[in-house]
Amino acid sequence: MKITALLRCLLAGGFVVAASAARSDGAGDPTPVSSTDGQYFDKDGNPTYKIGKDGKVDWYTFIGYRMYGANCLQCHGPDALGSSYAPSLVDSLKSLSTQQVLGTIIGGKRDVTAAQDLVMPSFGENKNVMCYLNPIYTYLRARSDGALGRERPSNHEAKPADWEKTVDDCFK
């Protein structure tokens, strides 16, 4: 599937965030101010997490944890703390805007210096990443903000009623 067709699918399914001004200080205040179909958004329209006092996480954070493990862990290490191969995303998200993070995931990145050659491949055509882009970002944001520990979330909100249909539509 071409990237434009996949992005159209993601937009239709509500998986890509609304555009907002890029910042160099991270995504900003993660407090949820709205919710649509189990996905929470901050005041700028960026995907965010909701974690109750009892540790119960929203569905997107939980699925993001699982999909991070399936697609990102092999390079960025357990719990997004980095490895000898790729940087800590917990640290990286502290200084990158939502759009910078999503742009890197979709388009990839190459940072070549005399000391190192860092390459992140583009995942723009990988449906296992793109169909779960907001959940992965939401999980990483919670980890970066220190709101979520290293362990698997033990309790989560119920799966949104149309979750399966949204994901199925994305994979078509």
Automatic annotation (TrEMBL):
Residues 148-172 are annotated as: Disordered. Keywords: Heme, Iron, Metal-binding, Signal. SUPFAM superfamilies: Cytochrome c. Residues 64-125 form the Cytochrome c domain. GO terms for molecular function: electron transfer activity; heme binding; metal ion binding. It comes from the Bacteria. Residues 1-21 form the signal peptide. It holds the Pfam family Cytochrome_CBB3. This is C-type cytochrome, methanol metabolism-related.
